[in-house]
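Catalogue entry: protein

Sequence with per-residue tokens
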Amino acid sequence: MSPQSTPSEPLLLHNTMRIMEGHLDEYKHAVTRAVEFVQQHGPQLMVQVFIDDDELLAHSFQLYPDSAAILRHWELSDPYIHEVMRHCTVERLEMYGEPDQSVTQGQASVATDGITRVTAGHHIGFVRTSQEAATDA
């Protein structure tokens, strides 16, 4: 049986952001507030943010169960996203999986000057909780 993508498969986003000179502390504060909010209210299965202080680069990884979850995140988190974006610019947005048309259209409606966008189709994989990994080891 060959793996097939369905609309219910997860989507992994990798967002690379350039933090503005002199905005590192403000960026960290804003992104911390945003992640704390989505941890309590957002649909993401996973959010991880990595920051290279010296290079002023941040990498955000977010795992969503499906396209509907991305749309819900945009709706819920808009004020937090705006606050984070006051301190950075997006250099690259990578989406792994196959979003539905509403997500694709939503991305296209956002200004894309200078942003490299990559979308790669899903082949195969799984998501395991850390609890499952610990008991299966």
Notes: The radius of gyration is 16 Å.
